[in-house]
Amino acid sequence: MQIARETLLRSYRAMRTIRMFEERLHVEFATGEIPGFVHLYCGEEASAVGVCANLTDNDTIASTHRGHGHCIAKGVGVAGMMAEIYGRSTGVCRGKGGSMHIADLACGMLGANGIVGGGPPLICGAALSHKTLRDGGVAVAFYGDGASNEGSTLESLNLASVWNLPAVFVVEDNGYGEATGASYACAGTQQARAAGFGMPYIECDGSDYFAVHQAAGEAIAHAREGKGPVMLHVHLQRWYGHFEGDAMTYRAADEVADARRDHDCLKLFRTRVTEAGLFEGSELDEVDAAVADEIEAAVVQAKDDPLPQSADLLADVYVRY
Amino acid sequence: MSKKSFRQAINEALRQEMRRDPTVILMGEDVAGGRGGSAGTQDAWGGVLGVTKGLLEEFGDTRVLDTPITEASYIGAAAGAAVTGLRPVAELMFVDFVGCCLDQIMNQAAKFRYMFGGKARTPLVIRAMFGAGFNAAAQHSQALYPLFTHIPGLKVVIPSSPYEAKGLLISAIRDDDPVIFLENKVMYDEEEDVPDEPYAIPFGEANLTREGRDVTIVAFGRMVGLANQAADRLEKKGISCTVIDPRTTSPLDRDTILECVADTGRLVIVDESSPRCNMATDIAALVAEEAFDTLRAPIRRVVPPHTPVPFATVLETLYLPSVDRIEAAVTATMAHRVAEKV
Fold this sequence. Notes:
The complex is a heterodimer of chains A (321) and B (342). Chain A is α/β, with parallel strands linked by helices. Chain A has a single domain, classed as Rossmann fold (3-Layer(aba) Sandwich). Chain A is built from 12 helices and 7 strands. A 5-stranded parallel β-sheet of chain A has the order 1-2-3-7-6, sandwiched between helices. A two-stranded antiparallel sheet of chain A has the order 4-5. The longest helix of chain A is centred in the first third of the chain and has 26 residues. Chain B has 342 residues and is of the alpha/beta class. Helices cover 35% and strands 18% of the residues of chain B. In chain B, the strands form 3 sheets. A 7-stranded mixed β-sheet of chain B has the order 3-2-4-5-7-6-12, with helices on both faces. The relative contact order of chain B is 0.12. The chains are: A alpha/beta (321), B alpha/beta (342). Chains A and B meet through helix 5 and helix 6 of A and helix 3, helix 4 and helix 5 of B. Chain B: Pfam families: Transket_pyr, Transketolase_C.
């Protein structure tokens, strides 16, 4: 499938934005200035971006605790995200959600989620809304190999098939649920699980943007055409720990270094598009520079933005009470 | 206006709101019933106790959705649908089953609006049966409204009669926040006059089912009826009671409770939920904190023991608050004499 040049450029920019956003958080978190804890998406950028490149604002996604990448890929503003992570009133959730609850319903982002397996049931509901309201939308649940074992996820695969929902279940399989390997914690295979619930299964290499884009395109088209849900299994590598501060003693010494060397989706993307003559390296360098400026500005702004006021504590528990 | 049962009043509220607003949908286990059965698609049950009977016929299977027996996925789906344009009414059947889907209520639906900085609206209603008195034993008889009341972001409704059920359910469906609507299963056949046209009873506004001068009784759901029976008996003995039906435990009409206690100086709370951290303790704390000086006797709570709900009729009868126990509590509070302070 031919991907439009503007789509490629937008996708490259989104992947670079995620990478720089997360690398910067890695640095800033170590200073102690960011409250709470953060889970970084570095290494997995092509999954969120390759999937979301096939979606519009009318489509809906639900994310995970490792949600920054999905937010950026779905179009949530970087400045508002950074301010949220710094706990500022200018944050996309006014400083009341933080890293694990970034949401922007206006662009179809139903939220990162602090509960493993929290998203798939919600996506069944969003898909039901798309189907009932006949708006042509598709709902996509991103969840990890860890969440793939949650009862809520397995129930959702069943319900989506029973109701023939326009839903795509994206298993982002980075090989670890927290500190426990998927090879230990996941019995059987994701493929057999999809088959068990009567839905098509597609897998792809998550470091290859083009492979994800192609696979997600097929899955989303299937769902959008009313043919029911699909499972998309994306094989990924997580470059940082489960959370920042995780020493990753459960991983072999060279595992992450190998991933960074051989499975860097941005490097692979650049090589492919420059060798194909689609872009000059300098064009992509310009994107990198622009993104670096954007991230720098977001951090400077977030640090300078106002903190929530005491009245905010009581606001927005209910629409009306 | 015509005589309608508690069951019919709820059915009518659902039907009228579904006619009024095409985004209102029903989902739950056997809300229609019969899907996939060898007899073909039909309205076989209309809910396990027949509350949603006939709705499939009028609204079709795109708005009356039978679910698999998988509470986490369909209650979560109801929450997800509510933030994306529908107004789902999800039936949890027995409230005890919340153990299978509490995350979707407590961590998802209840918190969207606050966590997302006020950007989400979650117009979700979860209906469930509750209460003992049906020999349904420990896993089908609990009165878990304190659990939901404890969670910020939820509204909790306990109708005390057919009239109340219809008006409160219509309000619940029109509400933009997640509402837990709890129906005492012992009441489904109770009848009274209920208007045929739709009407909404606002949340957070208590109903005084009678006004008296001596003792204030606060009761919830089916207990309101028992409290009024006790008050009838007490009236004959010259003791005059106010009976308050708060209608909703969240929001709670604190002002009405405090005003009535100020008038009577005595308070009895009747609550069929487990006695620790329940509505009776909550209201007792409220009155102790805000109206201590108006009290002329200790607050009394008529509540079950701290046990699971038992099965055998003789034990279940002992377990539940009764007219006799309410009468005894009121009599005891009237007998109390405050010691002269030196």
